[in-house]
Task: structure prediction
Amino acid sequence: MSDLVGDARTWSPDAQEAVRLLAVSALVEGRDRSEVTALFKVSVRAMDNWWARWQIGGRDALLSRPRGRRTGEHQVLSEAEQAAVRQAVLDHTPCYLGLSGQLWTRGLIGELIFKLYRVRFTEPGVGKYLRRWSLTFQRPDKRAVEQDPQAVRVWCEETWPAIRARTKAEGAEVLFGDQVGIRSDQVTGRTWGEQGRMPVVRRTGNQFSVNAMSAISTKGRMHFRVFTETFDAKVMCRFLARLVGHFDRKVHLVVDRHSAHRSKAVGAWLADHKDRIELHFLPSYSPELNPDELVNADLKLSLPHTHRARNHTGLAAETRRFFHRRQRQPHVVTGYFKAPHVRYILNE
Result:
């Protein structure tokens, strides 16, 4: 509204729109142009411009329009270039594209843009593109480089559906199991403290640990055993014996490829109890496919809030309390199966 004079230059868009509509209405009613310009304190040039717009487009031509650039207008990178950079960030790590590091930062994305298109961006400038691309700064999941993606696909799309179909046909029970070690000096999680001064958490100086084996089902059942000895084939056989004792039907147990799970001793025990239990092995280097891994993470996150044990006995007792608590919370157990990487278990 540069043609408005006096204080009208500082009016809001709505106020300026009202002036245009009133001024043109006055002309339509037959008022003299000079009289209208004096009444509304606008220039003759502005009045002529409004009148021409009204004659061409009617009332709509006098309405206010959003100011500023439209989304995507006057951007340095074209839409195709933006799409290419976005996909590169999603599909690859920086080191794969000849940059440094495993994790993307705004600075590294700026380096990628310069490498591709010879255009320099500040980190805030890169940030604007990232927001436009709906990308957010996140903590990544970790995957072993040894993992075979094809084996993972076969497990999720073929092997597991076949196991599920068998258990339904047999009226059997299917569980996912794993083992975990808990250390006396372990501190997991965060706490509040004064800025600039790191909080101190006191723990016993004696180092000791306990181990646990657990198994969970989609029905919310949890079975476990806590022990202080090293996890080996003998411990595994004792756990399997305890597990089958809880069921009057066959059990299918899904575990990882730990050497104890695949040992000759365990194989011989399973052969003697093949009508009671059967083991199935997840793909190598794929812990994210096992929901019982989330039980382990839950245990390690929960213990620091209550952990005051000074010896093996105390730590084992606290670990058992955790498992007993979760056994009374089947909704928490079923919740483990709703995590993104294990939802394949529930998908029909």
Summary: DSSP finds twelve helices and five strands in the chain. Residues 1-6 have pLDDT under 50 and may be disordered.
